[in-house]
């Protein structure tokens, strides 16, 4: 890890603010925000509970409106309720909702429905090597910006001839320009030097070719940021040998999914990285790699770091920066304690131990808290 | 030291093509006791590496003659690649370098490599990634065999722009091709004594497409009760690969995931210069480096790693049933790999291509077989 202090590390984890787009400040009623909470399946509910526990402990002025989505029901009522709640509140924190393979193909992925209906077009994941976590690679600092609504995830498939399935991957100029613009704006706001577009335009010439062209177009408007492109297979190979060469990466949906999982694996696993989905009007926060974690559910062994860091991103989005930094500092200092590492990091700590330690760290720094 | 008897060959690089044994495919044709193999130099580092292959073959007195067919990637017409395809149909076997696909040309100019694979119906791309003893990597004891569907999927090159600014790319998955590749994977696994086959997919999102692929794999798996079958979503797979790659044995997947996963695995075992790849069809076989890099930036500088191409030529010799020559060259290549001072730039050394090839030839000569002069 470089000579960065924990404070600058936590500062670097703050998300972008579209300050220049005159978005009104988040609404508060009686000085408190309301945030939609979707527990999801697997480890989602327990981690969401820990988040609530921590927020109550720190006296964070956020109230959660819990909306349960039952993944085994075929009707879309549940997810539509959730979407309406998010439209109402503007912000949400969610766990992953399981997509059961055994249900018929007409049953669409609930997570995907949520993202496309709310037009959360940018998925931002910041992968950074954490000081307390031992990994094979060091000094990784990659920001991955992934198009979140189109591409291979359009859920448009058909079987005209029996035994022959066509899946449509949709790339549009508007959305490609939009995500490229978002990427460059974010890079500029964070003082990043380089943006890499990941594509497979040698094979999908029209589709990824269009994406690449849009990125090049947008790059012209940001002369201080260098832009290059890389084919996705070469990118994945470079990521496992020399990930330090990457700075900001922008890409369509499927490559984003794969590349973000590779990067999450490089910095220590799915339990550490938070993710954020931003749209024009809404923002939804979740773990970076969207795992349901069914096999470790309710065993007190899940790593709460990713979900808690996602809740800090949420607090930053609501402009409660002081609370966000305080919780983030506590989380990062806890992660350096090897004896508290959970199973996914190679330790034997339990989720509740980690959360307790975070609460202790917060209490010791002095601000107003409830009693433990 | 790698010893290689034909029956107990380190399955690493031997390409015992499973179809040979079952069906009535005649042995490869020899005229005057010599085979003719199509050689496509390609672009970038292809020509120089293939020259080294020819050099090593001539030195070891391998009974193979190369019919060289050039494919000019700058031309828009398909005459060149069609000539190459005809030559491969004629000879049955080919060794190729990667042909560059220029992004600046019109979208109607299809990737030449892709055209070759689909016209010859080379449906299975097989890549065996193994940790080599002489190469230092972050992960050890990797032994993964990747079988990738090579002709359909995202590489169907079918795209259209019905509405301006909206492009639809079609990813085609068919039952026949999926059954075929799954069958190939399980047969190969059984033959090499592998215990587990993992299907990689994204069926939670592409329910019909990857769902069909997964179903076909399951169907075929039921006919092979001695082999465990499991499936994994591609994003989880890539994450597992970078943390615990030792859990994987044989992996089968559609085209695009195969591309990405094979590149990740190549990166894990030491890079693109080390792993050979083979493309098998029912009637033809084409051998090349596994990650299909053109290597334009290192072309003609005597720094490319010849290992991948030489191991690919050994796989070709196995395919032609010239097992002795294959083993001797393979042993020489793997022994040279142990010498750190001969490592090329891509694995962190400063050796040149020529030094590596010379060392390989010296080793072959030291084993006492018939060779020409050094």
UniProtKB/TrEMBL annotation, chain A:
Domain Isopropylmalate dehydrogenase-like: from-to ranges: 34-358
GO biological process, one term: isocitrate metabolic process
Domain of life of the native organism: Eukaryota
Subcellular localization(s) per the UniProt record: Mitochondrion
Keyword Transmembrane: no
The keyword Protein transport belongs to this UniProt entry's keyword annotation: no
Gene Ontology terms for molecular function: ATP binding; magnesium ion binding; NAD binding; oxidoreductase activity, acting on the CH-OH group of donors, NAD or NADP as acceptor
Swiss-Prot/TrEMBL cofactor(s): Mn(2+); Mg(2+)
Any one Pfam family match given in the protein's UniProt record, by short name: Iso_dh
Main location: mitochondrion
GO-annotated cellular components: mitochondrion
Gene3D superfamilies attached to this UniProt entry: Isopropylmalate Dehydrogenase (3.40.718.10)
Entry keywords, A to Z: ATP-binding, Magnesium, Manganese, Metal-binding, Mitochondrion, Nucleotide-binding, Transit peptide, Tricarboxylic acid cycle
PANTHER family reported in the protein's UniProt record: DECARBOXYLATING DEHYDROGENASES-ISOCITRATE, ISOPROPYLMALATE, TARTRATE, ISOCITRATE DEHYDROGENASE [NAD] SUBUNIT, MITOCHONDRIAL
Known function: Regulatory subunit which plays a role in the allosteric regulation of the enzyme catalyzing the decarboxylation of isocitrate (ICT) into alpha-ketoglutarate. The heterodimer composed of the alpha (IDH3A) and beta (IDH3B) subunits and the heterodimer composed of the alpha (IDH3A) and gamma (IDH3G) subunits, have considerable basal activity but the full activity of the heterotetramer (containing two subunits of IDH3A, one of IDH3B and one of IDH3G) requires the assembly and cooperative function of both heterodimers.
UniProt similarity note: Belongs to the isocitrate and isopropylmalate dehydrogenases family.
Subunit structure: Heterooligomer of subunits alpha (IDH3A), beta (IDH3B), and gamma (IDH3G) in the apparent ratio of 2:1:1. The heterodimer containing one IDH3A and one IDH3B subunit and the heterodimer containing one IDH3A and one IDH3G subunit assemble into a heterotetramer (which contains two subunits of IDH3A, one of IDH3B and one of IDH3G) and further into the heterooctamer.
Descriptive protein name: Isocitrate dehydrogenase [NAD] subunit, mitochondrial
Organism whose genome encodes this protein: Xyrichtys novacula
From TrEMBL, chain B:
GO cellular component: mitochondrion
Primary location: mitochondrion
Domain of life: Eukaryota
Family per similarity comment: Belongs to the isocitrate and isopropylmalate dehydrogenases family.
Subunit organization: Heterooligomer of subunits alpha (IDH3A), beta (IDH3B), and gamma (IDH3G) in the apparent ratio of 2:1:1. The heterodimer containing one IDH3A and one IDH3B subunit and the heterodimer containing one IDH3A and one IDH3G subunit assemble into a heterotetramer (which contains two subunits of IDH3A, one of IDH3B and one of IDH3G) and further into the heterooctamer.
SMART domains in alphabetical order: Iso_dh
Cofactor names: Mn(2+); Mg(2+)
Keyword Manganese belongs to the record: yes
Gene3D superfamilies in the cross-refs: Isopropylmalate Dehydrogenase
Residue ranges constituting the Isopropylmalate dehydrogenase-like domain according to the UniProt record: 36-360
InterPro entries in the cross-refs: IsoCit/isopropylmalate_DH_CS, Isocitrate_DH_NAD, IsoPropMal-DH-like_dom
Gene Ontology molecular function: any one: oxidoreductase activity, acting on the CH-OH group of donors, NAD or NADP as acceptor
Subcellular localization: Mitochondrion
Any one Gene Ontology BP term: isocitrate metabolic process
SUPFAM superfamilies in UniProt: Isocitrate/Isopropylmalate dehydrogenase-like
Bilayer-crossing regions: none
Native organism taxonomy: Eukaryota, Metazoa, Chordata, Craniata, Vertebrata
Protein name: Isocitrate dehydrogenase [NAD] subunit, mitochondrial
Pfam families (alphabetical): Iso_dh
Function, as annotated: Regulatory subunit which plays a role in the allosteric regulation of the enzyme catalyzing the decarboxylation of isocitrate (ICT) into alpha-ketoglutarate. The heterodimer composed of the alpha (IDH3A) and beta (IDH3B) subunits and the heterodimer composed of the alpha (IDH3A) and gamma (IDH3G) subunits, have considerable basal activity but the full activity of the heterotetramer (containing two subunits of IDH3A, one of IDH3B and one of IDH3G) requires the assembly and cooperative function of both heterodimers.
Annotated keywords: ATP-binding, Magnesium, Manganese, Metal-binding, Mitochondrion, Nucleotide-binding, Transit peptide, Tricarboxylic acid cycle
Classification via NCBIfam families: mito_nad_idh
């Amino acid at each position: 890890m470089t000579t960065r202090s924990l404070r600058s590390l936590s500062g670097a984890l703050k998300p972008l603010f579209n300050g220049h787009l005159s978005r009104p400040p988040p609404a508060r009623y009686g000085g408190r925000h309301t945030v939609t909470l979707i527990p999801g399946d697997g480890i989602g509910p327990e981690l969401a509970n820990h988040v609530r526990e921590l927020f109550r402990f720190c006296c964070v002025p956020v109230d959660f409106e819990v909306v349960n989505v039952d993944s085994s029901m075929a009707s879309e009522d549940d997810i539509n309720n959730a979407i309406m709640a998010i439209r109402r509140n503007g912000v949400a924190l969610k766990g992953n909702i399981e997509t059961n393979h055994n249900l018929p193909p007409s049953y669409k992925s609930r997570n995907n429905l949520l993202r496309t209906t709310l037009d959360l077009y940018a998925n931002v994941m910041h992968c950074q090597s954490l000081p307390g976590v031992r990994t094979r690679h060091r000094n990784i600092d990659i920001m991955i910006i992934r198009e979140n609504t189109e591409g291979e995830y359009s859920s448009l498939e058909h079987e005209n001839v029996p035994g022959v399935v066509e899946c449509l991957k949709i790339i549009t100029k508007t959305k490609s320009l939009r995500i490229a613009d978002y990427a460059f704006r974010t890079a500029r706001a964070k003082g990043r030097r380089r943006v890499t577009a990941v594509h497979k335009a040698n094979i999908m010439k029209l589709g990824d070719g269009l994406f690449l062209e849009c990125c090049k177009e947008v790059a012209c408007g940001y002369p201080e940021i260098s832009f290059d492109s890389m084919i996705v297979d070469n990118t994945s190979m470079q990521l496992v040998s020399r990930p330090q060469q990457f700075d900001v990466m922008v890409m369509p949906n499927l490559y984003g999914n794969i590349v973000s999982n590779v990067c999450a694996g490089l910095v220590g696993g799915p339990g550490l990285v938070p993710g954020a989905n931003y749209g024009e009007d809404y923002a939804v926060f979740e773990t970076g790699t969207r795992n349901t974690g069914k096999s470790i559910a309710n065993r007190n062994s899940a790593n709460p770091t990713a979900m808690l860091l996602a809740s800090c991103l949420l607090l930053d989005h609501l402009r409660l920066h002081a609370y966000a930094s305080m919780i983030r500092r506590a989380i990062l200092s806890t992660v350096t304690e090897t004896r508290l590492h959970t199973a996914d990091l190679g330790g034997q700590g339990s989720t509740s131990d980690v959360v307790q330690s975070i609460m202790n760290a917060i209490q010791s720094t002095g601000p107003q808290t409830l009693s433990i | 030291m790698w010893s290689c008897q034909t029956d107990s060959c380190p399955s690493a690089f031997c390409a015992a093509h499973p179809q040979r044994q079952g069906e009535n495919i005649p042995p490869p044709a020899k005229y005057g006791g010599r085979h003719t193999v199509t050689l496509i130099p390609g672009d970038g580092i292809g020509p120089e590496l293939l020259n080294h292959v020819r050099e090593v073959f001539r030195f070891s007195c391998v009974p193979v003659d190369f019919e060289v067919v050039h494919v000019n990637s700058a031309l828009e017409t398909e005459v060149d690649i069609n000539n190459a395809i005809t030559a491969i149909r004629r000879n049955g076997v080919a060794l190729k370098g990667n042909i560059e696909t220029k992004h600046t040309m019109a979208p109607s100019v299809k990737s030449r490599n892709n055209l070759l694979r689909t016209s010859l119906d080379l449906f299975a791309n097989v890549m065996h990634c193994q940790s080599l003893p002489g190469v230092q990597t972050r992960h050890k004891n990797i032994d993964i065999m990747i079988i990738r569907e090579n002709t359909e999927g995202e590489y169907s090159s079918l795209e259209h722009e019905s509405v301006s600014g909206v492009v639809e790319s079609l990813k085609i998955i068919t039952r026949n091709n999926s059954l075929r590749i799954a069958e190939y994977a399980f047969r190969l696994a059984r033959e090499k004594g592998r215990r587990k086959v993992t299907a990689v997919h994204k069926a939670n999102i592409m329910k019909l497409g990857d769902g069909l692929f997964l179903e076909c794999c399951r169907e075929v798996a039921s006919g092979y009760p001695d082999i465990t079958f499991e499936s994994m979503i591609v994003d989880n797979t890539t994450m597992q690969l970078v943390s615990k790659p030792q859990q994987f044995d044989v992996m089968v997947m559609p085209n695009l995931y195969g591309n990405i996963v094979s590149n990740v695995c190549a990166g894990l075992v030491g890079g693109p210069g080390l792993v050979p790849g083979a493309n098998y069809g029912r009637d033809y076989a084409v051998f090349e480096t596994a990650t299909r890099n053109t290597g334009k930036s290192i072309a003609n500088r005597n720094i490319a790693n010849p290992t991948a191409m030489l191991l690919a030529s050994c796989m070709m010799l196995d395919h032609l049933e010239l097992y002795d020559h294959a083993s001797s060259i393979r042993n020489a290549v793997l022994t040279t790999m142990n010498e750190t001072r001969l490592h090329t730039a891509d694995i962190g050394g400063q050796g040149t291509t020529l030094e590596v090839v010379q060392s390989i030839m010296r080793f072959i000569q030291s084993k006492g077989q018939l060779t020409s002069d050094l």
